[in-house]
Design goal:
Radius of gyration of chain B: 26 Å
Strand content of chain B: 35-45%
Oligomer: heterodimer
Strand content of chain A: 25-35%
Distance between the termini of chain A: 46 Å
Structural class of chain B: alpha+beta
Radius of gyration of chain A: 25 Å
Number of strands of chain B: 30
Distance between the termini of chain B: 80 Å
Strand order of the largest sheet of chain A: 9-10-11-14-13-12
Shape of chain A: flat
Number of helices of chain A: 10
Largest sheet of chain B: 8 strands, antiparallel
Helix content of chain A: 10-25%
Number of helices of chain B: 10
């Protein structure tokens, strides 16, 4: 499996691609490109009330009009201070995050004083670039104070994982020019039109870069028009490619071997596609586009995963599926809605990881960020149950309805929890016999319970943790003071982004 | 050079001084040569390369040889050889109990000059012993060791917990069924080595095994089928009503269908077993060994014995008595071991179905607990509770023999099967039965294999199956016709 890296990590110098004909024609656009300097403070995932020491990084952004600068979400993730510097200028200007889309690795910045940008030409967006067409990446690869322009050719259009989110997949375009740390967030142009935002690259291959193409950027810009970012919809579908290639499978479903289509293996109950689509259905078309046995459709001239069509919708849109069910083909409308609460194995860019400290026991929510606290080899070194639930929580009866997978992450020793030494890294299922689906439910079950003992059950464990309710109540404040746990919980939802927004300014 | 000479000289002196014992013991110990033929778990219709290994065995009454079950597991051919003789005598396994890792081997002809070892008693902590290992075809070499402690561990060849000596040694490479003697009497048999400690089975376990009548009347070793959890937390003690008691261990799980499943409940507290008080961690005080887990009290019983347990239930003391059943590692859904047995499997249209086993997972080598597919490891660790009925296996498709017949499915790997033709399958036999009742669509017959979690399903026709199987047997050189599913006429 190839590993994509989040940029801003390694220092790499790049030869400046100057002096070409295209670069010359871009002269007046140069002033619309910004170097973005960021000081970020990331949450600590093992002691979730703390932050890790601040670090600095830089990226690129570009002016899109209305006083707004577009960049990558990973450039400004958990930023506590942001400045932008125009190419050719010497005065960094403070900036704030207006909208951030961690799932699509995009962010929109604004300046407190938009007038300073009034003389700039907003960059305009083109369409999905064609295979083999040349593109130019503009940015500030690390180590360079001057703008760099690198030329390359579009080598692939696909639907793949966005590394910043860790889980979400979207349309992306691969180019054969290197995208280096610092390039992130920079415009990728064809002629004078932006066709993408540079954002990630392969660690194992030279000269392979990935850009966020315009359909994803345009979706982001449209999503935020109502003043709020809803995010990409999640179809919640698990499908298995190629099975409809099998003639007897096709015949069983009353189809001919050349009918194509892709079979559904699982529909997540929290997704908008449930219950309209069902396991065993064969998707033949999506929005009138024929779905092949490889699950691909024609999208603006390229063959990409059928999910691309669903993924680019806004909340409230309608997707039209043509399916075969029990040998009968039928059309099914799915209204794209927000997904119902559930756990996803993604990275967290909130102010803090969700947590609750109760009686000195630190409970947190399973996330990819938390698993990464086991290091680079987390997928081998993290506890088996957590690795398993990272992949399979949506399929397991005990966890599929959970908004959070609740993990006992730590014990802050105190007399009230002196014997609660079991179940470290265990997954909480119930309190006092009542199932808990989230950290918020855990908090109220522990705090509102009336029994003299708090009995906390863990998945697959023979031994619960038992605490004396009145003693915990009496000691909570003292324990949190002793260990510097302030606040004692962070249960905030998606609105709680870790990067600095304008409302945070004095 | 001088130093080396001095060392050799010193060793010679030492050997000479102790030769009186060694000579006698060389008449009581034989070499056991084993040719092993293990099933290839990923291609279960064939075997791994044959390997040759040598172990030791101790001569028992009647000329039988005692060795470990590990030594004779998967043996295709066995020979015994006495020290000082070049003659190898063919032998066969007379009886083996993999649960306790012990076996008796019978030579096809009597070995001249050997005599049965005298059997000693259980050791006390700090007792000095000698571990004997083959130096060459003529002599044993003697390693001094001492009993450090006694622990309860799962046997090397099963998941049965039994008492084991930890003998402190200076040497490496021990643990291959070397006999342990004290004052000329056999006191233990080694089963493995962990750094400076050699694990060895105590005489009380060995005596239990050989005194039981090896053969069809063998009773075997029992268990009560509960999982214990320490009862140290005062809160938990109060919750289970044990606040007035200083000792006793909590029952965390009761396995369905086990000896005491009708007698014991979760949150019962075991106070005494056989009249012996049990600590909050489940230990008792052994007169020679100190603190030992109560499982050793069960090791001393035979399956079928009555066991008396004093428990505390909701604050009330109860005396319970029940019959102990023989322990069976393979009552869990994931097969614990399958020594000497063929690997059950069935091929349908190129899909290879097997029963999930620890042997299969161990193919990933020493780090199998990290490297094996974690859906399978999860099943082993979290979904492996014994079921009340006989073992219900986890059926999974290990891989697919790529062929035009299974086009579109050839990348399937390690998918756990849920239903076949709408029926839950729990063994290769029940899979065969389910496949014999195909589903129909448009007047044609199909096999519908439905997987757990995200695996979806496979649908393959009945038509053309025989031809496809013939082609696969040729292409993949599968020489066991019974590997393939044959539709009933």
């Amino acid at each position: 499996m190839e590993a994509l890296i989040r940029h801003l990590t390694a220092a790499l110098l790049l030869a400046f691609g100057a002096g070409t004909a295209q670069a010359a024609s871009l002269a007046d656009l140069r002033s619309s490109v910004f170097k973005i300097q960021v000081t970020s403070t990331e949450p600590n995932f093992t002691d979730p009330w703390k932050k890790v020491p601040p670090s600095s990084s830089s990226g690129t952004g570009f002016y899109i009009g209305d006083g707004h600068i577009l960049t990558n979400a990973h450039v400004i993730a958990n930023a506590s201070f942001i400045t932008v510097l125009r190419d050719g200028d010497s005065r960094p200007l403070p900036a704030f995050v207006k909208f951030v889309a961690h799932d699509a690795d995009l962010a929109m910045l604004e300046l407190p004083d938009a007038k300073v940008l009034s003389d700039l030409t907003p960059m305009r967006f083109g369409s999905l670039p064609k295979l083999r067409s040349p593109v130019a990446t503009i940015g500030f690869p690390m180590g360079g104070e001057q703008l760099s322009i690198t030329e390359g050719v579009v080598s692939r259009v696909s639907y793949r994982r966005y590394v910043h989110d860790g889980f979400a997949r979207h349309l992306l375009v691969q180019v054969d020019s290197a995208i280096n740390p610092g390039n992130s967030g920079g415009p990728v142009v064809q002629g004078r039109m932006v066709v993408g935002v540079a954002f990630q690259s392969l660690t194992q291959a030279d000269n392979t870069g990935y850009i966020i193409p315009t359909p994803v950027i345009k979706r982001f810009l449209k999503d935020v028009e109502d003043g709020h970012y809803d995010g990409h919809p999640d179809d919640g579908l698990t499908t298995i490619e190629w099975t409809m290639l099998n003639p007897s499978t096709a015949a069983f479903h009353g189809l001919t071997p050349d009918a194509g289509g892709i079979k559904i293996a699982h529909v997540a109950p929290w997704a908008a596609t449930s219950p309209e689509l069902k396991e065993g259905d064969i998707i033949l078309e999506i929005d009138g586009q024929t779905v092949g046995v490889d699950g691909k459709v024609n999208f603006q001239g390229e063959r990409v995963d059928f999910r691309t069509v669903f993924d680019l919708k806004q909340i409230g849109d309608v997707v039209l599926f043509k399916i075969a069910r029990a040998g009968v083909s039928q059309k099914i409308e799915v209204k794209v809605d927000k997904v119902r609460p559930h756990s996803e194995p993604e990275y967290i860019y909130a102010k803090h990881s969700k947590y609750l400290v109760h009686g000195g026991l630190v409970f947190t929510a399973l996330s990819r960020s938390y698993l990464r606290s086991w290091g680079e080899r987390w997928y081998k070194d993290a506890p088996l149950l957590l690795r398993f639930l990272d992949s399979y929580s949506r399929f397991e009866e005990e966890t599929r309805d959970s908004a959070d997978i609740i993990v006992l992450a730590k014990r802050l020793p105190d007399a009230v929890n002196a014997y609660a030494t079991t179940n470290l890294y265990g997954v909480v299922t119930a309190v006092d016999g009542k199932i808990v689906h989230s950290l918020a439910e855990l908090a109220s079950a522990l705090e509102d319970g009336k029994d003299p003992f708090e009995v906390i059950d863990f998945m697959g464990a023979p031994e619960p943790i038992v605490l004396a309710r009145d003693k915990v109540k009496a000691r909570n404040v003292a324990i949190n003071t002793k260990y510097g746990v302030i606040p004692d919980r962070w249960l905030a939802g998606p609105e709680d982004d870790g990067a600095i927004g304008k409302e945070a300014t004095p | 050079m001088n130093r080396l000479l001095a060392l050799v000289f010193g060793l010679t002196l030492w050997t000479a001084a102790t030769s009186a014992y060694s000579e006698a013991i060389e008449d009581q110990v034989v070499r056991v040569h084993v040719s092993k033929k293990e099933v290839d778990r990923s291609s279960p219709w064939q075997f791994e390369d044959v390997t040759q290994q040598s172990y030791l065995g101790v001569v028992m009454d009647g000329g039988r040889i005692l060795t470990t079950a590990f030594a004779v597991a998967d043996a295709a051919f066995l020979e015994v050889q006495r020290f000082g003789s070049s003659k190898r005598v063919e032998a066969e396994v007379e009886f083996v109990d993999y649960e306790v890792n012990l076996a008796l081997v019978r030579p096809s002809e009597s070995l001249p000059g050997v005599h049965a070892a005298a059997l000693g008693d259980d050791l006390a902590v700090d007792d000095g012993v000698e571990i004997y290992r083959a130096r060459d075809a003529y002599q044993l070499s003697r390693m001094p060791a001492s009993l450090q402690e006694v622990g309860v561990f799962a046997a090397v060849t099963s998941s049965y917990s039994l008492a084991s000596y930890l003998l402190k040694v200076q040497q490496n490479g021990l643990g291959w069924a070397e006999p342990v003697f004290r004052q000329g009497k056999l006191v233990a048999l080694t089963t493995g080595q962990d750094q400076n400690f050699v694990h060895a089975l105590p005489m009380s376990i060995i005596r239990h095994f050989i005194k039981d009548s090896p053969g069809p009347k063998y009773r075997g070793f029992p268990s009560i089928g509960v999982a214990l959890s320490s009862l140290v937390s005062p809160e938990m003690r109060q919750l289970v009503g044990a606040q007035g008691f200083a000792n006793g261990v909590r029952i965390g799980q009761v396995q369905a269908g086990s000896s005491f499943s009708d007698l014991l409940k979760v949150n019962d507290v075991i106070l005494e077993v056989d009249g012996v008080p049990i600590s909050e961690h489940g230990f008792f005080t052994h007169p020679r060994w100190g603190k030992v887990h109560l499982k050793y009290l069960l090791n001393q019983h035979y399956a079928g014995d009555q066991l008396k347990v004093k428990i505390l239930r909701a604050g009330k003391v109860l005396d319970i008595q029940g019959k102990l059943d023989r322990f069976d590692s393979n009552r869990t859904p994931v097969v614990a071991y399958r020594h000497d047995q063929p690997e059950p499997h069935l091929i349908y249209g190129g899909l290879i179905f097997q029963e999930l086993s620890q042997d299969y997972l161990k193919q990933w080598g020493r780090e199998w607990r990290e490297l094996a597919p974690f859906e399978l490891l999860y099943t082993l660790d979290f979904q492996n509770e014994p079921t009340p009925s006989a073992a219900e296996r986890i059926i999974f498709v290990t891989r697919v023999l790529a062929d035009d017949f299974n086009r579109g499915y050839s990348d399937l790997r390690h998918q756990i099967v849920d239903l076949v033709n709408g029926v839950k399958v729990t063994s290769i036999a029940s899979l065969r039965e389910a496949l014999a009742h195909p589903v129909t669509s448009g007047g044609k017959r199909y096999a519908q294999v439905h997987f757990k979690r995200d695996g979806g399903e496979v649908i393959l026709a009945y038509d053309g199956l025989a031809t496809a199987h013939q082609r696969m047997a040729r292409t993949y050189e599968i020489k066991m016709p019974e590997s393939f599913f044959t539709p009933p006429p």
